[in-house]
Amino acid sequence: MLAFSILTTAVATDAPVATDAPPHVDNPFVGATAYLNPDYGEKVNQQATQTAGSLGEKMAQVATYPTAVWMDRIGAITGTAADGTKIAMSLREHLDAALVQKLPGKPITFLMVVYNLPNRDCHALASNGEIPHGSIERYKTDYIDSIAEIVSDPQYADIRIVATIEPDSLPNLVTNLSTPACARAKSSGEYVEGVQYALNKLYQIPNVYTYVDLGHSGWLGWDSAFSPTVTLITDTIKGTHAGVNTVDGFVSNTSGSTPVVEPFLPEFTGSQPFRSADFYDWNPYADEVSYMSAMYDAFVAAGLPTTIGMLVDTSRNGWGGPQRPTVASASKDVNTFVDESRIDKRPHRGGWCNQIGMGIGERPVIEPYEHFDAFVWVKPPGESDGVSAAGIIDPNDPAKGFDGMCDPNATNRDKPQYSTNAMAGAPHAGWWFTEQFEMLVDNAYPPLP
Q1: Does residue 449 sit within a domain?
Q2: Tens of pLDDT along 83-135?
Q3: Range of the domain at 432
């Protein structure tokens, strides 16, 4: 296991220009430093300087870890709001900054999220996209082509651009077809077509590495979802121009809070398997390592190369703090044992919006397990998952809506016997959520020193 090499300050005053394109490697994170997003660092440091004592010091440390840059709107490519106002760094400005941070003779990774399909987020409302159903050509020309034009610029050839592809999109076509918007995404083929187009365009650029989203274990772990997911995504990949060689791997737990491992569950000595507990509902995968290891085996068996690697978003799945168990329960009752032993303290694994109790998880690290390329921070800790009350418009991205799963006073949409477990006072998705960031730092595991 190798720690990421982190840069905390710029190391050069002028951005070097690449002359020869480096080869496409198996694991882009090996031997590379990682880009630190100045926009994110500014938000973190502002709250850290306003927070006294050791908590503020811990907050400041978070800015020293690499986080993904989300291309979640066409305007994000240029760093502009819906009205054209400049609100953030553009994609090109980020890549220029990565060149400034790059050490001589050493590659640097730039983690980017491609997230703007037509009819996006079909089973939820908090991150509805700007491109409506039926507008796949706009997705291709105004969004993907614009990104590809920038990242293919020869001056960025020494940057290993790691692109995670369309979170939640293809998994929604497996489990959520009862939702009309997802049924339309399935029948129109626009999700599959969009993902294939993105993969085809990015595959042509040697320094771009693509990782397709696989949801998370608490969503797709059951046999009824696991196998169809593998089939759908394999067929999607095989339908690209380069087939199974198009992708570098897969990513799970994007913006999620499912633990990397559940350390105490294997210690259960009762007569029933722990997965029979109400919390797991016979899902065989309690954590992301077991889930993604099984996904690796399944995709290789389906014909993908053994060189594929797995990523897990560990930005918010630490579950530390005083509620974290330190030993396994002694109970022989499966529900009591699981509830007392699990580190995931959500009332239900389907809770996804601004979950109470989350903490910053494992720091970004290279090759933590066999077949895992890295643990990464895809969701920048401190950015909201969705607004907690209706009637509030996001001026930068008016397409975002209110989702009841973000309402702290509501019940879980899919399992109404459980609460949403959402924090109160949350702004729209992507906006800075001061109270959540404090909670994430307090509950970090491993703890921030």
Answers
A1: no
A2: 999 999 999 999 999 999 999 999 999 999 999 999 999 998 877 889 999 99
A3: 2-442
449: Cβ–Cβ under 8 A, 6 or more apart, which residues?
58, 61
Mean pLDDT of the chain: 95
pTM of the model: 0.95
Residue 447 lies in a domain: no
What gap in Å lies between CA 351 and CA 316, rounded to an integer?
Answer: 13
- Residues of the chain under the 70 pLDDT cut: 2-19
Query: Do 28 and 162 meet the contact criterion of CB atoms below 8 Å apart?
Result: yes
User: Into how many domains does the chain fold?
Assistant: 1
Sign of torsion over alpha carbons 415, 419, 421, 427 = positive
Number of CB atoms found within 10 A of residue 293's CB: 16
Q: What angle do CA 58, 61, 66 make, to 5 degrees?
A: 140
List residues bridging with 80 in a β-sheet.
86
> CB–CB of 116/70 below 8 Å?
no
Q: 3-state class of 3 per DSSP?
A: strand
Give CA–CA dist 443/437, Å, rounded.
Answer: 10
| Residues that are catalytic | 168, 385
Given this model, what pLDDT does residue 79 score? 98
pLDDT tens, position by position, 174-209: 999 999 999 999 999 999 999 999 999 999 999 999
| DSSP H or E stretch at residue 299 | helix 288-301
Helix (H, G, I), strand (E, B) or coil at 139: helix
Tokens of 273: 């398997």
**Domain presence at residue 341:** yes
Contacts of 158 (CB under 8 A, 6+ apart): 16, 18, 22, 99, 102, 107, 108, 207
Output the domain CATH number for residue 177.
3.20.20.40
Please tell me whether residue 232 adopts helix, strand or coil conformation: helix
Q: In sequence order, what are the residues at sequence separation of 6 or more whose Cβ sits closer than 8 angstroms to the Cβ of residue 75?
A: 81, 82, 84, 396, 397
Distance CA 444, CA 449 (A): 10
Distance CA 348, CA 291 (A): 18
Q: Nearest-CA neighbor of 151 among 236, 227, 209?
A: 209
CA distances from 156 to 51, 201, 380, 416, 422 (A): 37, 16, 23, 49, 40
Instruction: Let me know if residue 448 belongs to a domain.
Output: no
